[in-house]
Amino acid sequence: MNQAMPVIALAGNPNSGKTSIFNALTGAKQHVANYPGITVEIKEGKAHSGEFTAEVIDLPGTYSLTPYSPDEVAARDYLLEQHPDVVIHVVDASNLERNLYLTTQLMELGVPVIIALNMIDIAEAREIWIDSDGLSQILGIPVVRTIANRGTGSDELLQKAMSMAIEGASWVPIDLSYGQASDDALRILEKRIRETELLSDMVPPGWLALRLLEQDSHTISRIEKLNSSAGDDILDMSADLADKVFREMNDETEGVIADHRYGFVAGVVKRIKSHSSLNRVYLSDRIDKFLTNPLLGPVVMAAVLFGLFQFTFFISSAPIALMEGFFSWLHSIAWNLLPEGLIRSMIVSGAIDGVGGVVGFVPLIMFMFFFISILEDTGYMARIAFLMDRIFRKFGLHGNSIVPFIVSGGISGGCAVPGIMAARTLRDPKERIATILSVPFMNCGAKLPIYALLIAAFFSAREGLMLFLLILISWTFALLSARMLRSTILRGDSTSFVLELPPYRLPSMKSLLIHMWERTWLYLRKAGTVILFASVVMWALMTFPTLPADQASSLTGNELAQARLSYSIAGRAGRAFESITKPLMGFDWKTDVALIGGFAAKEIVVSTLGTVYSMGEIDVDDSSSLSERLADEEGWNPVTAFALIMFTMLYIPCIATIAVIKRETRSWKWAGFAIVYTTGAAAVVATAAYQIGMLFNS
Asked: Which pTM value belongs to this model?
């Protein structure tokens, strides 16, 4: 054991149930989505077994320890550099051959391994029978049968892992044969590595020899950075030996070694796996004949998404009305109870109307998240990704770019921050940056309150249809953006893509409610912290400096309120922008003030509009909702509203998104480009929408 608290790492293929095992061991409430790429960071938690506690690390999903994507690099580097006491390899029992390839590589490294033979229920439903005791005997490592989503086997798994960690299991690499030519080359290379003690404090010499014979670029780069003559000599030797194997085998050493690994796996599986002799077409396969059909599949997908949006608006309309009524009542009560002055204005206009405009849409957010969780947990989200792959490739993107797009709000309710982080699964750096720069155009959850507000005010007769249209528009702009980037500054060919379609599963109500609550709570927490703070700041900017007494004395009612707003810092900024935005996009200075606030977070557009129109009311006791105020406001019409939707859909990402773009690209250049690029696109599209709309509206 390498420290006081044992460290247990979880490794596994995407969709193997690894994150569910992590949740079962640690009690964490981490979101689990049923498609590749959702786990993009190393997560950690604590697990308790009796009097002992262990640190559990959830590594990014990976198919192999041969790293190509940033996720795969992160998983392998953690194993090499942190040396966990035990690795639990979560294996999908229904796809045993593919999963055991990673097991073989972990055993080559020598790390103490336990196999969590997961989804055993799905395997048996397919009449696949696995001798787990036989698998344990052949590989010489513990095997525990688990069903992660039910918690079955998690206690036994933790006990075995804890025992191995506490007893201090040694790192012992497995001895495999990769063919005579490769084995001879490995013996020569390993002997030389032992003599020089190259990286001896980090990895076993045999494993290092294997990676060098495969000409693994990351291993070669690591040795080059040592700037040692011994390292350079070994790199030259490994290149010569790899070339020798290639001449003898007429194949690259990486392919030769991979073939022998697969041969070893096939031999193991043949001995411990049996299945029905019937030629069965499983339920998931029968369903996919329809849902992934090139002609019928897109029609079904469009119908499902349209129905989701239509039903979401229908079922949330009554709760939204209640929430709006509550905040209107709170507005009136606070206005009448508090003495006139800045404190009353700040609390009522800044806090209550600002936050209320955002929180009022919580029912819509909750139902949207609930239905999206159903799509994720059943496995249908992966089918949406599959259907979109053919389209993505036409726009110069890798098929795995689908995951960042969906996570960012591909069917509403996502967030660009985890979406951008999900782009780590992309191997090609140009495809990755093009994806990162395009996903902010998707309809994240922060934009939903803006859409809901304006749709309720100006398109109430066709709410579901309007939101469905906005989803299509966001996809269109995101893909066109990617095509433009891949055709110009990020030119290059798309790389190959394989997408795993997990079996359909019935989600548990508990899981759906947890997912819904987690996302809604993040939204509420943001409303109660960031948005509240920003709303009060925007109120201050719309209040100070105060209008001089000599100018205020001659004004009353709405004229006085308008004059005070206009004289404030925010009002002056809005007036400055109005000379440009009013003729081009139809935005008055009040809208410009709200858009300035949206630089911090998109929800603040709604809260600022609530503050602006609260401060500008003639009757301070008016309890009408913000959408009703906008519908009655002079200068507002469906064309202006649609232009504003287009602008907020496309313009500068929020501060958090800009920060993560900088972090993921490791360059302020791309973060700055994202600001200019998205805002320029928003201005052009909103101007076109307004000008064309007014032509038809005249």
From this structure: 0.63
